[in-house]
Amino acid sequence: MLLLLVRGTNQRTAHNLDLETEAAADDDFFGVASERGVVAVPGSESFTRDRLEKFEHLARSRDARVSDVKVIDAGFGTIRYDSDNQPSLQEFTKRDRSEKIVTERPGNGSRAGSFAPKHLEGADDGKPPDSEEQQTAYDYLRRESPPSSVKLDSKGFRILKSEIRPDLSRLLHTEAVDLLRKLVLYNDNDILVLNKPYGMLCHGPAPGVSDACVLTKLLPDLSSALYPRQDAKLYTVHRLDRDVTGVLLLARTQRMADMLNSLFQKHQVSKTYLAITAGVPDHLEGVIDMPLAEGEVEGAKRMVLNPKLDPEFQRLVPKFRKSFAAVTTYRVLASCGRAGYLELRPTTGVKHQLRAHLGLGLRCPILGDHKYSHLRRLAPQKLPGDMLDRLGIRQSKVRDAPLHLHARAVVVPEILDGRNLTVAAEVPYHFAKNLRRLKLNRN
């Protein structure tokens, strides 16, 4: 008995992604990433959507009040905004991490090429592939896994897991630390924000998992690398599942860690996720209000739905020691055939909440989620035929499909002298690739 509050119509239409949040005040600013670039805009209703869509229409304004706490990951580095609304690319050298600002406007080429520093433009610059001047995360990932390295099985079908970049299992401890340095989205005011890569555990250790795949094992060396002259320590304040990518917050001091932990426990931190789903909800948007409990399926622990029923029916439902209130707001951004592209905003923070609500509640499991694709058994996900065709895979190899769940943005309210901190990260390579294949990126 799924409690679903519907807001909208049954018509399946695509929506443009925005980062608006109720937690933001009228004078807060946020960043929006689009195919034409990355822009920062105020939350005022007087600004039209047309000004969001074209970077070049965002002119200098004398009364612009863009703060320095709006950060967007553009796939090739991070974009912050100066006081006159002009974007700038930040780079850090490996030796002293000193900051250099590039203020050139993007041209008409690709986003990566237009924003990249001049020494990254063009392939014939005479520098070796491991040159120290290649400072961006985009360049590092491109060098580690060339775009042409698409693996096929013996029958000519794609192997989707081969497109995960980078492959953490191939990295040494020092290489993993260096990778995290390149994936820093924000580093100021005792807060460090990372763009967590696929396959990295937030806590460990775990059997058969190397230290290069466990964040807590890397934090001491990461702290030494980022703050060489300080006796700093990094604290985890929340976590993402191993195969979930995106925005992850850390604290540099115990005081800041306590503040962030308190905000997370009170559900005051606004989180936005993106997911590709096998199936499209019947309603365009809604709120899933369904308690969860830790159950068991085929001898393995898994979160299960624990609906509130009338007393005469409650005896038919298994009893659990503890039930957790779980609320998720969803919105369909795009759909094509049986594939969906959803924006998710969890109000609560229950373990595997989004995966359970989509897979067991809406019956639209996340692509690559083999744990929550079946109600009463654990088995590889079964995809609709149109998704198999567009992805170029066969059903027997769907078990190798990676999870397509990404932490898109986090808004921490009034954490910096009454101002909100908003940080966003672009989807990883394999996620973006499959968005295009499934024709979900047209808007």
UniProtKB/TrEMBL annotation:
Compositionally biased tracts (Basic and acidic residues): 92-103, 118-130
Sample GO molecular function, one term: pseudouridine synthase activity
Occurrences of domain Pseudouridine synthase RsuA/RluA-like (ranges): 190-358
Stretch forming the signal peptide: none
UniProt keyword list: Glycosidase, Hydrolase, Isomerase
GO biological process: one example: pseudouridine synthesis
Record Pfam families: PseudoU_synth_2
Catalytic activity: a uridine in mRNA = a pseudouridine in mRNA; uridine in 5S rRNA = pseudouridine in 5S rRNA; a uridine in tRNA = a pseudouridine in tRNA
Region (Disordered): 83-134
Family as reported in the entry's similarity comment: Belongs to the pseudouridine synthase RluA family.
Protein name (Swiss-Prot/TrEMBL): Pseudouridylate synthase RPUSD4, mitochondrial
Organism for this UniProt entry: Ixodes scapularis
